[in-house]
Design brief:
By secondary structure, this protein is of the alpha+beta class. The protein contains 7 helices and 7 strands. A hairpin with a 5-residue loop joins β1 and β2. The chain starts with 8 loop residues before the first helix and ends with a strand.
Length: about 250
């Protein structure tokens, strides 16, 4: 499952484990819904207005959880049981299964999730190895000792290069190997400035190879990027491709 702004499996599992091990003192009355007005009763369910912060958070939790697990290959959500579980909890009813059963199932799911992560990591490693092996044979590609690969797209006139303690001002466009754009100051139309020692290793190393006015394309292996950690819309163990133009050094 992509970490594409979804609730993480580990987070949901933590919630499940907590819910099945922690009792609740709330009665059914505390969850009593507000009676609908006559105007609201005339609206179909999907058109009911979502107005208060509580309503918006409630809807958001349900939507993001369902969205995140809609195509999950590890957990197959049963819609009817999911709704029944929520309804039973809000109605103050007893669980249809024991807490021990719920906890055991959550642990089993955690095990399946870890197995899938390990399998995905192995596939990603094999794909990355093939990608970099084929890439280094291409004309204009330079491979450094760390495994970073780069190519010069535009060579500027300056000889001024940053060091790791400098701040740099850049325009960049970041994609995955399949062309998916995950971040781009170019698309936003606004360059950014940042300390060079405060970014991923591939950038810290790569930018020091550039001079002001240069534009490079970096092919960054996951160990110089975000590693096994999924970040935003970037899956774990991803190879990153960045087109980077160095606009200035120690500028705002």
């Amino acid at each position: 499952m992509s970490k594409k702004q979804f609730l993480s499996s580990s987070l949901i599992l933590s919630v499940l484990l907590c819910l099945t091990s922690c009792g609740s003192n709330e009665t059914a009355d505390t969850a009593k819904p507000v009676e609908a007005t006559a105007a609201e009763e005339t609206l179909p369910a999907e058109a009911q207005p979502i107005q208060t912060a509580d309503e918006k958070v409630s809807y958001g939790i349900g939507y993001e959880m369902a969205k995140g697990y809609g195509n999950d290959l590890v957990l197959k959500l049963d819609r009817d049981l999911l709704v029944q579980g929520i309804d039973d909890a809000l109605s103050g009813k007893e669980m249809l299964i024991t807490q021990e059963e719920a906890q055991a199932a959550a642990r089993e799911l955690q095990g399946r999730l870890e197995e899938k992560r390990a399998a995905d990591a192995l596939v990603a490693k094999e794909e990355a190895s093939s990608y970099f092996e084929a890439n280094k044979a291409k004309e204009g590609i330079v491979t450094t000792d760390s495994g970073l690969q780069y190519e010069i797209l535009v060579k500027g006139d300056s000889e001024q290069s940053p060091v790791a303690t400098d701040s740099v001002k850049v325009h960049y466009h970041g994609t995955l190997t399949d062309g998916t754009v995950f971040d781009s100051s170019v698309n936003r139309g606004e360059p950014i400035s940042f300390p060079l020692n405060g970014v991923i290793k591939g950038w810290t190393e790569g930018l020091q190879l550039m001079s002001i006015g240069d534009k490079f394309r970096f092919h960054i292996p996951s160990e110089l990027g975000y590693g096994a950690r999924a970040t935003g819309s970037i899956p774990a163990n991803s190879t990153l491709i960045f087109d980077v133009e160095l606009l200035g050094i120690n500028e705002g």
